[in-house]
Amino acid sequence: MDGETDVGPGSREDRAPQERIGPGRLVLVVGPSGAGKDSVLRGARARLAHDDRYVFPRRSVTRPPSADEDNISLNEDAFIALVNADAFALHWQAHGHRYGVPRAVDTAIASGATVICNVSRTVLQAARLRYQHVTVIGITASRDVLAARIFGRARESEDEATKRLDRATALRAVPLDVEIDNGGALEDAVTAFVTVVARPN
């Protein structure tokens, strides 16, 4: 499954709650490596920083800290302990790492806030069952742009980078509510993103 495994909406929740959580909204951001999801999210967070209606939760991730992402870095044992403690609203595995969105987002959405986070496409169905209002935004770019960004980062071997680029094709099949092209000026993509996020439910 493209290196991504859906491990459920939460450790004790393998089905939707009796009532979906609302009235706030959950905005889920997906897209291939190199599309610039984190750059768009940083830009949107900066523009919405003084509006407490918008929440950008920090994910927990089982990999070392990165200057490009504002995550909480955990080892495997610490992450599993949080799963067992039912500390995540959504969690999944991708590319050998685990990712989790904190349970506190449920409270924020129940209070009417809009929660915005970068997730795996494998949790989209579970999220739609769990929350009243879910908007899935796909951040995209052309294959040439993705290739330039992925190979330019030099984070991995050429073979791994090629596989990562090829996985971008699989993401085209993900059902999206909105698609934003981030192949041009970042500010244009951020403006388009904020416009979508600011729409009423």
Account of the 3D structure:
The chain has one domain: P-loop containing nucleotide triphosphate hydrolases (Rossmann fold), CATH 3.40.50. The longest helix has 13 residues, at 158-170. Helices cover 35% and strands 25% of the residues. With 201 residues, the protein is an alpha/beta fold. Strand 6 and strand 7 (97-102) form a beta hairpin. The radius of gyration is 16 Å and the shape is globular. It is built from 7 helices and 10 strands.
Summarize the structure.
The chain has helices spanning 37-47, 76-84, 104-110, 124-130, 143-153, 158-170, 186-197; strands spanning 4-6, 21-30, 54-55, 60-61, 72-73, 88-94, 97-102, 114-118, 131-140, 178-181. It has 201 residues and is α/β, with parallel strands linked by helices.
Lay out the secondary structure.
Blueprint: E1 4-6, E2 21-30, H1 37-47, E3 54-55, E4 60-61, E5 72-73, H2 76-84, E6 88-94, E7 97-102, H3 104-110, E8 114-118, H4 124-130, E9 131-140, H5 143-153, H6 158-170, E10 178-181, H7 186-197
Parallel strand pairs: 2-8, 2-9, 3-8, 4-5, 9-10
Antiparallel strand pairs: 1-6, 4-7, 6-7
Q: Specify the structural class.
A: alpha/beta
CATH architecture, by name, is: 3-Layer(aba) Sandwich
Task: Count every helix, treating DSSP H or I runs of 4 or more residues as helices.
Answer: 7
Spatial strand arrangement across the major sheet: 1-6-7-4-5
**What is the strand tally?**
10
Strand content: 25-35%
CATH topology: Rossmann fold
What's the end-to-end separation, in Å? 31 Å
Mean pLDDT score:
84
> What is the class in the CATH system?
Alpha Beta
Helix content: 25-40%
Low-confidence stretches: 11-16
Q: Which geometry do the CA atoms define?
A: globular
Number of domains: 1
User: Biggest sheet, open or closed, and with what strands and sense?
Assistant: 5 strands, mixed
CATH superfamily placement: P-loop containing nucleotide triphosphate hydrolases
Organism: Chelatococcus asaccharovorans
Region (Disordered): 1-25
Enzyme class: transferase
Catalytic activity: alpha-D-ribose 1,5-bisphosphate + ATP = 5-phospho-alpha-D-ribose 1-diphosphate + ADP
